[in-house]
Amino acid sequence: MAASLSAFLAQNARKIETTKFIASDRFKDAEGNPIPWEIGCITAGEANRIRQSCIRQTGKRGQVTQSFDAGAYQAKLAARCTLYPSLDDMDLQDSYGVHTAEELIQTMLTPGEFEAYGAKVLEVNGFATTEEMVDEAKN
Predict the structure, then answer these.
(1) Average model confidence (pLDDT) across the chain
(2) From start to end of 19-136, where are the E strands?
(3) Which residue in 24, 26, 39, 67 has its CB near the most CB atoms, within 10 A?
(4) What is the pTM of this model?
C-alpha cells in the first residue's frame, strides 16, 4: 500500500501539547497551592541553534579546541521552553536582579529544583529520561 505524503504536512501533524510541572513548591497561589510552570517543545533546529551557541572555542597559533558548555545549554534550553512564567518579563527579572531569562531561571530555582526542571524539559522535548536509559541498558 502506498503511503501518502499528506500525513507529513504541517497541518496534519499532531500538535505537541504543553506540559504543566511544579518546578518548586515555594511559589504558591492565593490558596497556598504550588503554581505549575508550563513547558513547551521546540524544534530540532532551534535546539541545534541553542547547542551551537554553547560551543566555546579556545586556542592560539592555529590550534583550536572546542568545548561544550552543558550548563549553559541546560539553562538556555530550560529558559526557551518555559512558557509560564514569562522569564523575559522585565519586572520579574528586576525583582531577582538579573538581566536574562537564563539567569532568572537559575536564580529562581534551587540547584535540585533546576535539575528536576531541566530533566522535565528534556522529557517534553522527546529526550529519553534517565530511568528509560537505565531500563534500556538493562535489557
Answers:
(1) 91
(2) 19-21, 37-39, 55-60, 63-68, 82-84
(3) 39
(4) 0.84
Cβ-based neighbour number of residue 25 at 10 Å: 10
Q: For 116, list phi and psi in degrees, rounded to 5.
A: -65, -40
Show the cell assigned to 119. Answer: 530533566
CA distances to 46, 78, 128 from 1, rounded to whole Å, are 35, 42, 32
Bond into 85 cis (ω within 30): yes
User: Which tens digit of pLDDT belongs to each residue from 9-59?
Assistant: 989 888 889 999 999 999 999 999 999 999 999 999 999 999 999 999 887
d(CA 59, CA 72): 20
C-alpha cell at 64: 583550536
